[in-house]
Amino acid sequence: MALEKAVIHNLDTNEDVGVLFNPKEYIIEKRTPWKEQEIQGLDSPAVEFTLGERKRLSMELFFDTSEEKSDVRAFTDKIEELMLVNADQHRPPLLLFTWGNLQFRCVLEDLVQRFTMFLNDGTPVRAILKVLFKEYSSAASQIKEKPRHSSDHTKRIILQEGESLSSLSAREYEDPAQWRVIADANGIDDPMNVEVGTPLRLPPLY
Description:
The protein is of the alpha+beta class. The chain has 2 domains: 7-145, Elongation Factor Tu (Ef-tu), domain 3, CATH 2.40.30.200; 155-202, Membrane-bound Lytic Murein Transglycosylase D, Chain A, CATH 3.10.350.10. Helices cover 16% and strands 34% of the residues. The chain has helices at 73-80, 139-145, 165-173, 179-186, and strands at 7-10, 15-18, 26-29, 34-37, 46-49, 56-64, 95-99, 102-118, 124-135, 155-158, 199-202. The strands form 3 sheets. A 7-stranded antiparallel beta sheet has the order 2-1-7-8-9-6-3, with helices on one face. Strands 4-5 form a two-stranded antiparallel ribbon. It has a two-stranded antiparallel sheet with strand order 10-11. β4 (34-37) and β5 form a beta hairpin. The relative contact order is 0.14. InterPro entries: CIS_tube_prot_N, LysM, LysM_dom_sf. This is LysM domain-containing protein. Residues 155-202 form the LysM domain.
């Protein structure tokens, strides 16, 4: 059984943009950069996670209308339109690339068109499009899918009368057993002997 045809679905207009031929392959990339912190006296810099990068889906799409002797741009222009600003949304459209069990919610961020065959009058009848889709996911949907157990940023507080690392952990992380995270972040050896008024860093949990 032949593999079903790849489709680019415009989520804004609910329209499908088909490809003439399925790609021979596709590449999915994901990077998670860490920021280096220069701290004097260490053999190597400390690192801190700041912000993840979106997944990238790249491939080449092949279009050929040489048998029909028609302009291949009737198909390639539809791909290019996926990068143009929508007058109602004030942005290019949101897309869903579907091929078999691959479902990739994205935007088309990069397009390179190469025309390789022409009729005698110069009409292009064959083209190879190099496309790069980048993952699209709103902040609300990301938080809903993966709820955070703490703030995304390090907090700084002053230990108040009656507070302990365990009580801080219960309040900030909803788990008193995470007091070790606070102790490690502040170089505390004895969690039972922290003076009132001590400034503390409360790092995020990942």
